[in-house]
Amino acid sequence: MTVGRLAPTPSGALHLGNALAFGAAWISVRNAGGKLLLRMEDLDRGRAREAVAQGQREDLRWLGLQWDEEVLCQSQRSYSLEGIPTWRCACSRAQRLSGACRCKEHPPEHGNWRFDPPPGEVVFEDRAWGTQRVLPPEGPILQRADGEAAYPLAVVVDDHLDGVTEVVRGADLLEATALQILLHRTLRQPPPSWLHVPLLLGPDGKKLSKSEGSMGIRQLREAGWSPDRVWALLLPLIGCEPPLERARMEPGPHWHRIWRVEEGANGPLLHPFGPIFGLDRKTSLPQPPPTDSIVRF
Ligand code: GLU
Asked: What pLDDT digit, counting tens, does each position of 171-197 carry?
């Protein structure tokens, strides 16, 4: 059976970009007659607040993105490094990035646990992006000095434990997939399939953030928007005809876009903003196309 998941981090209120990624995950699972889980990625307790998590669940319900089982919470699980080659490292981020770290040769008594991955590129298939070849980061942190698991470890352990067969999420995590696949392989567990959804950028050209008020689901709701109106705005970005309940998904080349969201008199306006590689591969951003291609509602 197809099993998908919505995996919000409760670090702020949901925005249009979250709705697009979660909507795609919902459609993909519902089209396959599968099961959708909700997992709160609340490991980072400083930022993860229960009130925020509750607000996110309310927004998901309002959007019509119902999940199928009890909500899962990362904060109620424990994560082990057993079976994963790691070394301990006491360096700061700056030292790690500069290559000055010698902790592998001289292991400290305290510090973060870093993954020692096999060398080389990871090749994987994305359902929208096709074949990807990504060099994973060197020595990513899997467990912090205080014992708390870092995101790459938690997500890989959880997706396996929860029986997740497909991951559908924002394209900002396309590159991070390589490391997750390596961890799945190291733990001898089959990785899920991958589908990365176009990103929405704020007017400043940066990824929408959960603190970005005007593009918040709550704000739209308070401004009198209906869920149908939100979906009529978002679904065409991934080639789907609204309404949500009947949307059929065929990931294609139009998914290789990023979109810029601006405030219009009647709510958000979305401009196509070029291929995502401009953003993710850290080269310069492409020029936006002429404004007559704005999606208006
Ligand atoms: N928790 C992540 C987020 O809120 C998503 C992680 C994932 O889908 O793997 O952006």
From this structure: 989 989 999 999 999 999 999 999 999
Atom 7 in ligand 1: residue holding the nearest Cα: 7
Residue 237 lies in a domain: yes
Rounding to the nearest 10 degrees, give the CA dihedral for residues 49, 50, 55, 58: 150
Name the pTM for this structure: 0.90
Q: Which of 3, 5, 6, 9 to mutate to test the pocket of ligand 1 (most atoms within 8 A of CB)?
A: 9
The whole-angstrom separation of Cα 216 and Cα 204 is 16
In 55-198, beta strands by DSSP E:
72-73, 86-89, 112-115, 122-126, 130-134, 141-143, 166-170, 193-197
Distance (Å) from CA 172 to ligand 1 centroid:
10
pLDDT in the model for residue 285:
36
Mean pLDDT of the chain: 88
Backbone torsions φ then ψ of 11, nearest 5 degrees: -105, 0
Is the pLDDT score of 143 beyond 90? Answer: yes
Residues with CB under 6 A from ligand 1: 7-9, 41, 155, 169, 173
- The contacts of residue 176 (CB under 8 Å, 6+ apart) are 152
CATH code for the domain in which residue 165 is found: 3.40.50.620
> Is 47 inside a domain boundary?
yes
The boundaries of the domain holding residue 225 are 3-77+153-293
Give the number of domains in the chain.
1
Q: What's the 219 CA to ligand 1 centre distance in angstroms? A: 22
Which helix (H) or strand (E) element contains residue 272?
Answer: strand 267-275
Q: What is the 102 CA–ligand 1 centroid distance (Å)?
A: 32
